[in-house]
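Pair request: fold both.
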Amino acid sequence: MTEQPWDRIVTEAREQTGYTGPIPGRTVAAIESALAEERHAAYRAELSRLGDGPGFEAFLDHWWVQAIADSADEDVREVAVDCADIAIALHVKAHPGPTYTTAEVAAKLAEDAA
């Protein structure tokens, strides 16, 4: 699959799910801005323990999905999360590289925190 810009990936995910609500950018600042206020401390703490590379990408993916969920109206939150999950899957498919299981990502994050 050819590399796709992020906005094209999000558009495709929106089309597949029908989600029309807010979607923050996939940047550190945009994600934090879209998170519910009570999640900011956990977000900042996890961010402060990360380096770059796959752990950082997993961090962005996780918190970006949470930011979308926090931004969505309650009645469409499930569709919003589906849209975010599809966008992440399309992004991974468009940018092949090493893949990690959830357990491997969790172990890496725990290692970075130590």
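--- second member of the pair ---
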Amino acid sequence: MNPRLEAEKAALIQRAELERLGIEAAWLDARKAVLPPTDPIRRAGAHTWLGRALRVAVPMFGIGRVSRAVQLMTVGLAVFRIARNWK
């Protein structure tokens, strides 16, 4: 094979490997941003207020509206955490 073609092929392989590593790093950053806190103290109190709020909201607004609102808030929170922790 032509030495010039071999050099181009090696450069393309290296570039593809660097892109793969960059995508993997971005994925790990996004995953870290979305996962709940690992500190047990922060994790324990994370959902107690939410349960109380849902117990009040479901009878007032209905399960359909509350579930849709919770879905939208979940997506919004995930996007916010990813944007906040983006490097």
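Observation on the second member. The first helix runs from residue 3 to 34.
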